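Thread: Newbie trying to understand structure tokens

Hi all, I'm a second-year student working on a class project, and my supervisor (Dr. K.) asked me to get a predicted structure for one chain before our next meeting. I've only ever worked with sequences, so writing a 3D structure as a token string is new to me. If someone could post the tokens and maybe explain what I'm looking at, I'd be very grateful. Here's the chain:
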Amino acid sequence: MPVITSIADLKALHRKRTPKMFYDYAESGSYTEQTFRENTTDFADIRLNQRVAVDMTGRTTASTMLGQPVTMPVALAPVGLTGMQRADGEIKAARAAAKFGVPYTLSTMSICSIEDVAAHSDAPFWFQIYTLTDDDFNARTIARAKAAGCSALVITVDLQLLGQRHKDLKNGLTAPPKFTLPVLLDLATKWRWGIEMLGTKRRFFGNIVGHVSGVSDPSRLSSWTAEKFDQALNWDRIRRLMDMWGGKVILKGVLHPADAEAAAAAGADAIVVSNHGGRQLDGALSSIRMLPSIVSAVGERTEVWLDSGIRSGQDVLKALALGAKGVMIGRAYIHGLGAMGEAGVTTALEVIRKELDTTMALCGERRVQDLNRANLLIPNGFFDTYS
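---
Reply by user tm_fold:
Sure, no problem. This is what the structure looks like when written as tokens:
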């Protein structure tokens, strides 16, 4: 058993144990991948302010997200095709999150269905939905999420059309994979993945196939999604989805202060500063660069979280010190899942919490709620280089 000390260790195992098309799906961005790269490298430019002779005892990473107690202010973000990283991946990730005491978000584009995850998790989870033109599908899906006891709806607002990801096109990404010669040669080296996949019936998009008129098999899915993403999306449409749900709502994909103000005015309980992990608009600024301006724009009217680029507990601390009330992680836990299944997700969370706790102590703080800009050393012009 390898010794795991960082998310990078899990990433290396993930790459070794998962078919190339699914690893690349998780570890890629759109076009040149500039934004994908800068989501992480910009975190590295922010340094930490060490303090000494400060009482470090009695530390806690506990907090709340949407009023829900959490062991640390970190939620698992919605990630499509999670069940292709590891068999029954959404179920495994949800169980790990529930046991650890952090929220899990199920993607509409999951392999395991809403009902599958609800049947195998001891805690309510959040459900993510896209802004689609098909109101019948939206209403029925939201009703299913309510019936499953989901405690919040995450509306993704930055995917009105799909950003081009070169690796997915070159790999011929499908779920399940088509057995071309290159795929078969790759699968021959991923025996652990293949054995687990043979043991599950969950290999298709469980929230869509069989739930949409005209989509009876995966081959029809791509054309349906291309047609149904709402390119005419506006705030009235978003409010309509919020009204359909009638409960707590998180709007994910906000990267501009004016959009953050509109989200707060619409009544969002939380907004997520995110560029979709660099998978949509390549050339956009990293989430961490945009965070302070969005926090300033909305004040205390809604919770502000950060997504995109989190790979360590130190990244979590930096986001919290810049005003975020919490963060979402995607690739960090997906690397754990692809590496070691449910145990890998738990390991990823443990790595992040330990790093957060240790770094917080060395910065002279005992509670995550007390983190602030004084804990950071920020390069001159970091937030105002562009105009």
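A couple of things are worth pointing out once you decode it. The longest strand covers residues 249-254. The radius of gyration is 20 Å. Feel free to ask follow-ups in this thread.
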